[in-house]
Design a protein that fits this description.
This protein is α+β, with helices and mostly antiparallel strands. It is about 40% helix and about 25% strand. The N and C termini lie far apart (about 40 Å).
Length: about 230
């Protein structure tokens, strides 16, 4: 578990270390079981969350009722800040993957911190800009890329966020990844995703096991969507 929740990935460059330490001191710990809902779309935003252990799925829902996975948050990442800024309800469902421990900064503590330290508003604006750019990227992929390209790109993103290098040169994605979840991430059926995964495996780009995926060739996967 990171000593400081926000010293992780992009957030190292976005949020000052002084701010992350202050957030940690104001947080309380909350625990969730696998599959337990943290909050749903439409719920009131009562605070800001950080992942201490486990993972969190951020879920959207199409007009036909089908769920899709926007992203998976891992230890060190925070979420739920949008409702604290605009006062509007939650925009997505967030669900625990595995036994999950979260740090929770209540709304009143968050706003008290920002009143005391207005110099921290610009870093939070940068954090939200990062989120918006990520969402625009998902929309662009959905419009411009076919299913094999979307799938290959999402596998590489998961390897970058949740991968662990293996002695044989592969990168194991350290998430339980049933094909249903991958299908939800790319807006496709499990059967269609399964066919393309088998094709990627035959090409030597990935290795599949039950609920597990190892990337064997980043270049091969990237060739699916790079011109």
């Amino acid at each position: 578990m990171p000593d400081n929740l926000l010293i992780h990935k992009e957030f190292l460059r976005i949020l000052p270390q002084e701010l992350t330490a202050m957030l940690d001191t104001r947080a309380v710990s909350k625990r969730y079981r696998d599959g337990q809902v943290i909050f749903r779309r439409g719920d009131e935003g009562r605070g800001f969350f950080g992942v201490r252990a486990g993972c969190v799925q951020v879920l959207g829902r199409g007009g036909d009722g089908r769920e899709f996975v926007l992203t998976v948050l891992s230890p060190g990442e925070w979420f739920g800040e949008l409702s604290l800024f605009d006062g509007l309800p939650r925009t997505h469902d967030n669900v625990a993957i595995g036994d999950t421990e979260l740090a929770f900064v209540p709304q009143r503590e968050f706003h008290a911190l920002m009143r005391e330290h207005p110099e921290f508003w610009p870093p939070f604006a940068e954090l939200m800009s990062h989120r918006i750019r990520m969402l625009f990227g998902f929309l662009e992929d959905a419009v411009l890329l076919d299913l094999p390209a979307r799938l290959a790109k999402r596998i590489l993103e998961l390897a970058g966020d949740h991968g662990r290098a293996q002695p044989d040169g592969g990168v194991a994605i350290e998430l339980h990844l049933p094909q249903e979840d991958l299908a939800a991430m790319v807006g496709a059926t499990r059967e269609a995703v399964g066919r393309h995964l088998k094709r990627f495996e035959r090409a030597g780009w990935i290795e599949l096991a039950y609920g597990r995926l190892v990337v064997r060739s980043r270049e091969g996967l990237a060739s699916s969507f790079e011109a």
